[in-house]
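User: For documentation purposes, I need each entry recorded in a consistent format: the amino acid sequence on its own, followed directly by the corresponding structure tokens. There are two entries in this batch. Please keep commentary to a minimum and don't merge the entries.

Assistant: Recorded as requested. Entry 1:
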Amino acid sequence: MHMQDLSDKCVKKFLKKVEEKMEDTSIVPSHVIAKYCRMLTIYCDTGGKVSESFISSMDKCIQEIISIEGMEEILNECNECPDDI
């Protein structure tokens, strides 16, 4: 499967969980989720062999996502490598 397809699949999974669990979906930073999913796809594809600055950028995305109430649980559910890699 193409990496963009994997990233899109991750975003869809995230947003589906958001719709299921949160009342106000307008506060969810979908652009940050998309960025995080792209980074997670790359991280998984490389087997975790990425630079420290890459990890730092991922951590910033994570912090921005979990700063919204209810999003930490959703992140924990979606924070896994896709089976297709």
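Entry 2:
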Amino acid sequence: MATATTPGNLLADAERSLTAAHVAEQILTQHPTLPIELIHACGTDGTGSAAPLLELVLVDGATDAIADWARAVNTDVTVDQGYLLSAQHRAIAEIDGVTVWVTTYEHDDESED
């Protein structure tokens, strides 16, 4: 989905989203075992930049997979404990001008009691 105030801006956002989708194809060709649950692409990176954003959400608990991908693209995984009953693991890289987030969530074992 894209939102804009002019047809030109809408077209630019759609083109950046398409660019992100092509990067997703490239990543999944190079890393076919990534356990993808959801792919999200949008025309801006959410920080005020006009760079496209791609998020690959892995299945819950895929911490080894995200660590392997991060090593392959020479980036780090950050862990944020600020999520209700889970920790977010995220690796961020830039690939062909697209900001890429690879994310998984690890549920707190104590919450299952």
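Summary note for entry 2:
The mean pLDDT is 87.
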